[in-house]
Amino acid sequence: MNILEINDLSKVFNLHILNNKKLEALKSINLTVAEGEIIGLTGKSGSGKSSLMKCIYRTYLASGGQINYKSINGMVDLVTASDHEVIELRKNEITYCSQFLSVIPRVSAVDVVCENLFKVNADKEAARYKAKGMLQQLGFPAELWDAFPVTFSGGEQQRINVARAIITSPRFLLIDEPTASLDPKTKDIVVDMLLDLKKHGTSILCISHDEYTIEKLVDRRINLHLGEILNLN
Amino acid sequence: MSNTEDNWLLKVNNLTKIYGDYTENSIKNTGPKFNSNICPETGSIVACADINFELYPGEVLGIVGESGSGKSTVVKLLYFDMEQSLGSAFLKPHLDGLSNILEESNQKKRWIRNYLMGMVYQNPRDGLNFKFSSGGNIAEKLIMGGNFHVGNIRNRATDLLEKTEVPVLRMDDKPASFSGGMQQRVQISKAIANNPPLLFLDEVTTGLDVSVQAKVLDLIRELQQDLGIAMIVVSHDLSVIRMLTDRTIVMKNGRIVERGLTDQILQDPQHKYSQLLVSSLL
Amino acid sequence: MVENNKYINKYNFAFIDESTKKEIRRKLLKAVAIPGYQVPYSSPEMPIARGWGTGGLHVTLAIIGKKDIFKIIDQGSDASVNACNLRNFVQSMTGVKTTFDTSEATIIQTRHRITEEELNENQIFVYQVPQPEPLRSVERYENKTRQMHGEANYAKMWVALYEQFVSHGDIMLGAGYPVKVNNRYIMAPSPIPRWDIPNLNLSKALHLFGAGREKRLYAIPPFTKVEPLEFDDIKFHIEDFKGSACSKTGYKKAFLDEMYYDDGSTNFVINDSNFLDKLSEKEQPTQHENKYINQIAE
């Protein structure tokens, strides 16, 4: 069963303020993701990996094609779904983990990790307990749990970012460079955690430049080049 | 998908405010296409026109745009601070959303303002009575809500001030002696005193210094998470919009030029003006 | 030849011309119909300055008839300057009988007091009002206060009471304590002491209020509910004389004046002069009944 079917997806940026210059980011993308499958997106910088992810998450509005997502409540075309439908899906099913942690001022590391649980009105103390468990698993120093992540190092922020994304065990996870700036040991932990999610049924679309991560993590690899899928193996 | 179509808390149809005499052409000949909100025929000013949107329970909606784009006008019309020229608005908790709140009697409007809405203005002097103490200001809202027990009023005011981190010891001082950030927090206490399902925030952090701004934004986020209040956040500051809102409306020359998920508006703006606005972000 | 006797008398009966009296009476009818509502009226010129009782005089002169018996008091006294002058004026303009006796009078004009003796169905009580707008202290604009009355939006008034309690530990209104009339309008009872406020409630007499300078009339019809504003936990109370008694009669259940003497000593005397006279002559005038007075020990 496929959780996601992308048909003929295209994305063109129309830059009004640069004399209507058009930038073609994605061309005729066709892709399916099975339930519980992990797909690795690879390709050079600027090949359209992030654009594809953002189109699925609706941060970008697709210019053409369909992104059919099989939600708990039935099929949704993420290209044409209403904002409120997308908000509900983001709250309950689809999580996007960007490359960089976007921090909220004056919110502690633990509460940043809990954010998505708070959004669905989870019990605060239970959520924090769970978050601390995950941070511990990721080898995140306990003395930083209540500190504000804005001053953290790249590796520390990365771990918070990953923990935040997977704490809700989403049905569909879009994750961008989960292991960049991590040491080999932590890389393994993150990969294991993602594989654990997969065991529980999560489908994952993962961007990575790291061959080691790709090798260990993904079921299938999609290679993008200049906005097009090169191979389908 | 679950049926979210009929779940709205607030529904706004064709909300329009025009100053001066106007004809049908006043709306046709103004707006972003003409880069003007002054009617060329009559000279009337179209502060906002054709405003349509729905707000869902617990949702935070941003309205962004430059000065004079009509964003404040929209919330002021909805809070009955001004009278609309055209249009209607429906609020679910009021008669199950079947009655246009903009056409209600003043008495009913006051009831709606006190029980179902709260407003935090950019200038605390608009939202607070500086002749009364901060506790008295909160008391005013509670009294309008039918609470005539001084002990209970003071207990509730204490709770609210604690929640908004205003020193309770200063409850009986006048807000004129407070700092700007503290005045703003007293204003928020007053606005949420009767636990309204809907809160309007009009440029609430403009003019505050950065650390105070962060504190006020923090408070708003917490209130939203803890109490599940739906909010309309009006701001020209895109960082405020990014931090607080789920969805955003972009306004220019009194019209909505674009609407969408906040991250989409900020990362993939479609309209020429939105692109200009986002590219101006520091 | 037709005799022209139009100018035989120097003045019209009761000084004011008939059409103006009619106007005032019409406004009074409206005031009675909407208890506590302030009715604007013409407030014609009088031979005394505005602020010296013109409003009360307008009401008295508009309603007085030849058979009326007129009494006027100023802060409880029949003999103070303001009362004497206005009494002389009304008497010379109407020729009616005047009296000091509260129970005998049919029209009682007053400044700042209600008589201690109970009023009856045949009496009309007329107040001279300096400031008819109870909301003036919290809202200075007339158009706003009218809107507030129109919508029964009295939160600001309540907050003002709250603020007084918070800063002073009590609601500090010695005179003119705001009342709610007939469950609707908040009304300024003219600066009568709190002592008199409960006597307005369900009173058998008709109470008419005239504010000449501010050009407003209002009324409390007989048997109308009049409640002082009070919180659920902060209650209205009357003046507490702490067990003091009148030095002339030994009486405790009346509003007392504190008298100061040259040697520095003080004592108390009943404020209402006619009531004091009656007690001194061993008469037993019937007093207003209310729970606040009843609480004072004999």
Describe this structure in words.
The complex is a heterotrimer of chains A (233), B (282) and C (298). Chain A has 233 residues and is of the alpha/beta class. Chain A contains 7 helices and 10 strands. Chain A has a 6-stranded mixed beta sheet, sandwiched between helices. Chain A has a 4-stranded antiparallel beta sheet with strand order 2-1-4-5, covered by helices on one side. In chain A, β9 and β10 form a beta hairpin. The longest helix of chain A has 16 residues, at 184-199. Chain A starts with a strand and ends with a strand. Chain B has 11 helices and 9 strands. Chain B is globular, with a radius of gyration of 19 Å. In chain C, β6 and β7 (185-187) form a beta hairpin. In chain C, α1 (18-33) packs across α2. Chain C is globular, with a radius of gyration of 20 Å. The model of chain C has no long low-confidence stretch (mean pLDDT 93). Chains in contact: A-B, B-C.
Task: Set down the secondary structure blueprint.
The complex is a heterotrimer of chains A (233), B (282) and C (298).
Chain A: E1 2-15, E2 21-34, E3 38-42, H1 49-57, E4 64-71, E5 74-77, H2 83-92, E6 94-97, H3 109-119, H4 124-137, H5 154-166, E7 172-176, H6 184-199, E8 203-207, H7 211-217, E9 220-225, E10 228-232
Parallel strand pairs in A: 3-8, 3-9, 6-7, 7-8
Antiparallel strand pairs in A: 1-2, 1-4, 4-5, 9-10
Helix pairs in contact in A: 3-4, 3-5
Chain B: E1 10-19, H1 24-28, E2 45-55, E3 60-64, H2 71-78, E4 86-91, H3 106-115, E5 117-120, H4 124-127, H5 134-144, H6 150-163, H7 180-191, E6 198-202, H8 210-227, E7 230-235, H9 238-244, E8 247-252, E9 255-261, H10 262-267, H11 272-279
Parallel strand pairs in B: 3-7, 3-8, 5-6, 6-7
Antiparallel strand pairs in B: 1-2, 1-4, 8-9
Chain C: H1 18-33, E1 39-40, H2 54-63, E2 69-74, H3 81-94, E3 97-98, E4 107-111, E5 124-128, H4 142-150, H5 155-168, E6 179-181, E7 185-187, E8 206-211, E9 216-220, E10 226-228, E11 256-260, E12 266-270, H6 273-280, H7 291-294
Parallel strand pairs in C: 2-3, 2-4, 4-5, 5-8
Antiparallel strand pairs in C: 1-9, 6-7, 6-10, 8-9, 11-12
